[in-house]
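We emphasize that the prediction below concerns an isolated chain of 187 residues; any contacts that depend on oligomerization or on bound cofactors are therefore not represented. The input was used exactly as deposited, without trimming of termini.
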Amino acid sequence: MATTADFRNGLNIEFNNDLYTIVEFQHVKPGKGGAFVRTKLKSLTTGKVIENTFNAGVKITTARIERRPHQYLYKDDLGYHFMDSNTFEQVLIEEDKINAPEFLFDGQEVDVIVHDETETILGCELPSFVELTVTYTEPGIKGDTATNATKPATLETGATVQVPLFIDQDEKIRVDTRTKSYYERVK
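Result of the prediction step, given as a token string:
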């Protein structure tokens, strides 16, 4: 158990029969009346962000959320299969619980987010940046760099991202999995 005085960004709580993480909070002490805490909460199960106000001193239940290292194995009709790096146990995760499934490749290390008390899988997060090889892209036209021009490029995982004109086929690029966009060329 914790109180509103323990609120901090990233704290996981149980609220309205769901698990939430605190995205933002603000203690407010008006000149008249009791103090309260305004919060933005993000659901760990649906990803929906809600706003809620707690009276100061209210007791809340904290939730233990763990990030466990897993390795991506393969995809089939049932979903995506991962192996726990510590216990070698295999788990199945649905596509909607993975933050960027189009950038998964064989043997990739990911973090699986698990509710510690119920052992429920809440999601799967890829590293912030992944390095992938461009399998196909049109050649850039010389002298066409006056603007911030981009072209589509197909990656080894089958995903397509917009890249600058100087990127050629068979080059390695770094992709930001949070924005699902090109970040830089790997030297």
